[in-house]
Design goal:
Number of domains: 2
Order of helices and strands: HEEHHEEEHEEEEHEEEHEEHE
Number of strands: 15
Distance between the termini: 26 Å
CATH topology of the largest domain: Alpha-Beta Plaits
Low-confidence stretches: none
C-alpha cells in the first residue's frame, strides 16, 4: 500500500498519444527522430503563431506566446534546480532508428502530455499536420498522419473529425495502481538512453542512490509543474544493485534555436535491484510514464520494471 504522501505526489495528470505517419517519398531521416519531431513541432508552432518575426530574445509577447506555453510551459511552482528553458510538459518518444525510409513506409511515435499542456492537443496536432506538408529532417521528408490513438488504442481522428470524448486523461496514481496488479519485477530495463548526473559527472554505470534521487527529483518537477505543493521524497532503504549491463550512448542533435550541434550522452541497458520498498516501488512504476534523467522531452530515460529473467 502506498502512503498518503506518495499518493499526493502522484496526482499528476497525463495523456498518452500514439501517432502513425506514412512517408510520402523516399528520404533520409535522422536516427534520433524524437529530436527532429520536437524541433519540427516547435518550428510549426512558431510559424503559425509568432507575430514578432521569430525574434524571441526581445519579444514583448514572450509571456503570452503559444509556442512557449507548449514547448517551454512555465512551472506553477518553480523548483530551485530547474534552469531556464526546461520543460516538464511533454515527452516525445520514437524508437524507430532507421535512417533510410521509403515512400509508403510507416513510422510510429508516442507523445505524453502532462498537466496544463494537455489542453493544447489541437494546436499540437495542427503543428504535426503542417510539419508533414513541410517535411521532416534536413531532407524534408513529407508525410501524412494516418492515425492518432489514445492509450487504449482507440482512434482520436476520422477525417477532419476529432473525438474529444476519447481523449483519456489519467493520473500517475491511477497508472501505478493499475501496474501494481501485474507481476512485480525488480529489473529496471531501459528502452532508450538515460542521462543521469551524479557527483558532477554523467553516470557510465547504474548507481542505486543516483537513480532514486533522479526519480524523486523528476516527480518533484512534475508536482511543481502541476502546482502540487510537496517536498522531494526521501527513501532511507535504498535497494542494493545485484546486477547490471550497460553500454555508452552518444546521440547527436542539431538545435535550431542555438544553431549548433550538441551531444546527448547517456547509457542504455538494465539494472537489477535487491528487495525494493513498496513505496519506492510505486514511484519506480510512475517513472515508466515520467521517464527519468536529462533530455526526457526527447524520449530519454524510458524504462519498464520487469522480471530479471526478461
Amino acid at each position: 500500500m502506498m502512503n498518503s504522501e506518495i499518493q499526493k505526489c502522484l496526482q499528476i495528470r497525463y495523456v498518452v498519444l500514439h501517432f502513425e505517419i506514412q512517408m510520402l517519398e523516399d528520404c533520409t531521416l535522422p536516427q534520433n527522430k524524437a529530436s527532429a519531431l520536437r524541433g519540427g513541432m516547435g518550428q510549426m508552432l512558431m510559424q503559425n503563431n509568432c507575430i514578432r518575426n521569430m525574434e524571441c530574445s526581445d519579444c514583448d509577447f514572450k509571456a503570452d506566446c503559444l509556442m512557449r506555453r507548449i514547448m517551454y510551459s512555465p512551472f506553477d511552482i518553480r523548483p530551485r534546480f530547474v534552469n531556464d528553458g526546461e520543460s516538464a510538459g511533454y515527452i516525445i518518444e520514437c524508437e524507430d532508428y532507421r535512417t533510410k525510409v521509403e515512400r509508403g513506409e510507416i513510422i510510429e511515435f508516442r507523445m505524453i502530455l502532462f498537466g496544463k499542456t494537455i489542453a493544447y492537443f489541437s494546436q499540437i496536432l495542427q503543428a504535426f499536420y503542417q510539419l508533414g506538408m513541410t517535411g521532416l529532417g534536413s531532407d524534408q521528408g513529407r508525410y501524412s498522419i494516418i492515425a492518432v490513438t489514445n492509450t487504449n488504442r482507440e482512434s482520436l481522428l476520422e477525417g477532419s473529425n476529432v473525438y474529444k470524448d476519447r481523449y483519456i486523461i489519467r493520473t500517475l496514481d491511477e497508472y501505478v495502481n493499475y501496474r501494481l496488479k501485474k507481476r512485480r519485477g525488480n529489473r529496471m530495463l531501459f528502452h532508450t538512453p538515460v542521462t543521469i548526473k551524479y557527483n558532477g559527472a554523467v553516470l557510465t554505470e547504474f548507481n542505486a542512490e543516483a537513480i532514486v534521487r533522479t526519480l524523486t527529483r523528476r516527480l518533484l518537477m512534475l508536482d511543481c509543474f502541476e502546482g502540487i505543493e510537496t517536498e522531494q521524497l526521501r527513501f532511507d532503504n535504498i535497494p542494493a544493485v545485484v546486477g547490471q549491463r550497460t553500454r555508452d550512448i552518444d546521440v547527436k542533435r542539431y538545435t535550431t534555436r542555438q544553431k549548433r550541434k550538441i551531444h546527448m550522452e547517456g547509457i542504455r541497458g538494465y539494472v537489477d535491484f535487491d528487495t525494493i520498498d513498496d513505496n519506492l516501488y510505486a514511484v519506480m512504476l510512475a517513472g515508466e510514464i515520467m521517464h527519468i534523467g536529462k533530455h526526457t522531452s526527447f524520449g530519454f530515460g524510458r524504462y519498464t520494471m520487469v522480471d530479471r529473467e526478461y
